[in-house]
Amino acid sequence: MPPEEQRFFQLISDYQRGKLTLEEAVPLVREASHALRSPINMSMPPSVRRLFAEVAKLDGRTFPEHTPHPDRHADGGGQMRLGLAESAWEALRSHPRRNQQLSIYFHFAASTEQTARAIATWLTDQAQERIEVESPAQADADDWIISASTPSMKWSQADAARWARVINGAPFADEASFTGWSV
User: Fold this and answer.
1) Is residue 121 part of a domain?
2) Would you put residue 140 in left (φ > 0), alpha (ψ -120 to 50) or beta?
3) Which of 63, 108, 164, 180 could join 85 via S-S bond, C-beta 3.0 to 4.6 A?
4) What is the three-class DSSP state of 131?
5) pLDDT for the residue 32
6) Number of domains observed in the structure of the chain
7) How many Å apart are CA 16 and CA 11, to the nearest integer?
8) Could you tell me if 151 and 129 are in contact, meaning their C-beta atoms sit under 8 angstroms apart?
9) How far apart are CA 149 and CA 132, in angstroms?
10) What are the backbone angles phi and psi of residue 98, rounded to the nearest 5°?
């Protein structure tokens, strides 16, 4: 990563962790953003929205008020779930430690606590492990975040298909999405 990008992200991190106040961070982030060679695509967690709004004000711009799209979970993360069994099996089959026991780590986002807790209960009932539910404030996100992992095992294609059925069977209720996984 180029040094100007490192500085930009370090300043944001320092602000999020309380090492810099808003007043201290605004001119530094403004200066660092002007030094970037090209625009940066980054997620905008709630903790930095005010910072970027203040930076925009200094530049005579307005920063759009960000509110999550009300229909953001309408398809439950359908694109991410499309072909999930096949993608998971391919990742497991080609993993450098494929002959050892592996776990899949995965997460969901839910717009309400009730749906987040329902997903956590579903995952518990499906024998998933290390299930954690974080509030939007804890996760620095717009949604409740549900993280979990599979039991560690030597995987077969049938196991990958079974895990995909667990994910697809979660109680999304048009208020949650499957948002990612890794081996």
Assistant:
1) yes
2) left
3) 164
4) strand
5) 96
6) 2
7) 9
8) yes
9) 10
10) -60, -20
